[in-house]
Amino acid sequence: MLPGGHNVVILAAGGSARLGQAKQLLRRDGETLVARMVRLAEATRPTRLMMVVGAQADAVIAAVHEPHLEVLINPQWQEGLASSLRYAACALARESAPTMILGCDQVALELPHLLRLLDGYAAYGCAVTRLGDARGLPVMVPADVLSRALQLHGDVGLRTVLRQRTDVFELDVPELALDVDTAEDLVRARARRWLD
Fold it and tell me: Where is the MobA-like NTP transferase domain (predicted)?
């Protein structure tokens, strides 16, 4: 745990257009991916735990049973990732604690990965996941970086902002590069038993 605490935002608003079904509701070991991400996030003991939903919001919300979860409904989810990040940044605008941001579809993600991000943040002041040649989710960012999401538009995240930072811990776990965006990704994840 960080001395001043931390917040967690789970991005679960996407429409999964390329996959053709809601990836948030896919299952691993009988648990929906969105419920699994909420459970893993809660295990980091955040001060605030938030989930941004949009597409199929009712079904995604119904899949999660966590009393401390704050749900933000993003009516602009079709705009892309930036709109969900803006909603989260607005909701946390008065917070000074850092924020961990997760997606729903990194099927290999485990609690030790998140704990390593927390440790990396404590040492460096910013922590990202190395996904091949790029930096991506999950990330742990200070409040000033999250606030820059307010200027984002389209289907972009904080990657450009994070690329400018050199004081960053990078979690390098190759299997986290597999997220479920297409039918081929689904086949690969099932072959590795990361999805039912």
Answer: 8-166
Residue 120 domain flag: yes
Task: Check if the beta carbon of residue 85 is closer than 8 Å to that of residue 79.
Answer: no
Q: Residue 1: its pLDDT value, please?
A: 63
Q: Considering only CA atoms, give the Rg of the chain.
A: 15
Indicate whether 2 belongs to any domain: no
Cα atoms found within 13 Å of the Cα of residue 138, Cβ hemisphere only: 32
> What is residue 165's predicted lDDT score, i.e. its pLDDT?
84
Residue 196 within a domain: no
What is the domain-level CATH number for residue 106?
Answer: 3.90.550.10
Which residues are CB-contacts of 97 (< 8 A; sequence separation ≥ 6)?
Answer: 2, 4, 5, 6, 7, 47, 143
